[in-house]
Amino acid sequence: MSTAVGSPRLPSGPAAPVPRRWWALTAVATAQLMIGLDLTIMNIALPSVQRSLDLSDPDRQWVITIFALGYGGLLLVGGRLSDLLGRRRSLMIGLIGFALASAIGGAAVGPAMLLTSRALQGVFGALVTPSVLATLAATFPTPAERGKAFGIYGTVMGSSSGVGVVLGGVLTDYLDWRWCMYVNLPIAVAAGAGVLYAVRPAPRAVGVRVDVAGALPATIGLMALVLGFARAEPDGWGGASTLGALTVGVLALAAFVWVQSRVAGPLLPLRVVLDRRRSGSYLAVLSLAVGMFAALFFLTFYLQNVLGYSPVRAGLAFLPLTAGLMLGVRLVSPLLMRAPVRSLLCPGLLTIAAGLALLGLLQVDSGYWPHVLPVFALVGLGTGWVLVAANSTATLGAGADTAVAGAMVMTSQQIGASLGTALLSTIAGTAAAGYLHAHPAAAARAAVHGFNVASLGAAGFLCLAALGVFLITGPRGSER
């Protein structure tokens, strides 16, 4: 899910109110809501998509992964392009491209066509989001109105995950999974009309260049890592394709860091991630995304394939996740300027870990109310807690780097979702295959066993991540 709860801190000062600014807020919030919906709307539809397009178990997770990877991997590039093209133009290009990609996905006749459309959605979504944040910052220059505007924006984004799964269930159950793609067309039209009406054209930034030398190794490295994790299930962890892809990924990301330390206008200035508070925030968000999206992925199939829920019922079953997320936001917000960083981030990560540990104890005959609902509530609570704290911390005192510091939060979230879904799906599939080999007649138990093993592994990873965040951000990193 892409929830940007905390707002960037911007220079304050007297400024004339921007005409039609609340219409502009409505337009860009609608645009970003569309992106947020697409991070979760296909989760509920996945079983129907798999049957319709004859997707294999290893390939099905790419419907989610390839969107999140394209989106998260290109957010920093999208920010540079937004400066280069201008906010209004970038928004319109992104919305039109996203709508066309959605139409292609809805008309997909095979896996390749669907996955291509999802990749294009991620690419154009990465152009929309930085332009949305830049538009909000420019449209609401006064502190009082800016706080209200970002509050409304954060509320919209906080609800997008729940709206996505419920809408996905309704559309899949009563129409067809293809409408989970087609629904973006009217949303994009409404947002585009609002942008044309209310968002003022901004001059292109002078001297802005896209760091191609940095963008290429970053994109190649992230995609290679996810490919390596995905190939581990069919080819094995020692397979040539697995090891080759993982090696390429590590080397490409190392090249990205080397390039960023030497170019004049880097995509990601290293001073941003070398700040201990920010680096701890990025690690926390990446880790929560690994756990949260794994829980979403596993529970989608558990509810529908094991418990026999319809898509609508499964979508409604996800609502405690959204309720927990919004409760987490409400609880942590008053503490942001008073508590040290590590006491904000670590409890949230451990709460998500507790939810995943419960998910690791699920059985074929477990009930929703005593076993599944607590998982949703804990994962949602911890996610909301970490996201608002990370957004606030990452943008606190960032100065000229505020935009890229905020973009890195969302980049970390999407990369964590991509890598987590790929890796944990592979672990679950491997464990399920081993169980099924020993118990040939227990297909449902084998699937649940795979979910258990992967979820407990994710819980352990989040505990280690919480320890890492604690060490990185303290004691000097915890000073406000």
Q: Could you characterize what this model shows?
A:
Its main location: membrane. Residues 24-477 form the Major facilitator superfamily (MFS) profile domain. It comes from Nonomuraea guangzhouensis. The chain crosses the membrane at residues 21-42, 62-79, 91-113, 119-140, 152-175, 181-199, 211-230, 236-259, 280-302, 314-332, 344-362, 368-388, 417-438, 450-472. The protein has helices at residues 21-38, 41-53, 57-60, 62-73, 75-85, 87-106, 111-139, 143-174, 179-182, 184-198, 212-235, 240-260, 270-274, 276-306, 311-317, 319-332, 341-359, 368-395, 402-438, 443-473. It has 480 residues and is mostly helical. It has three domains: 1-7 and 15-209, MFS general substrate transporter like domains (Growth Hormone, Chain: A), CATH 1.20.1250.20; 212-264; 269-480, Growth Hormone, Chain: A (Up-down Bundle). α4 packs parallel to α7, α5 packs across α6 and α18 runs antiparallel to α19. Mean pLDDT is 83; it is low at 1-14.
Summarize the structure.
The chain has 480 residues and is mainly α.
Offer a few descriptive terms.
480 residues, mainly alpha, Growth Hormone, Chain: A, 20 helices, 78% helix, globular, transport, transmembrane, Sugar_transporter_CS, transmembrane helix, cell membrane
Topology at a glance:
Layout lengths: L20 H18 L2 H13 L3 H4 L1 H12 L1 H11 L1 H20 L4 H29 L3 H32 L4 H4 L1 H15 L13 H24 L4 H21 L9 H5 L1 H31 L4 H7 L1 H14 L8 H19 L8 H28 L6 H37 L4 H31 L7
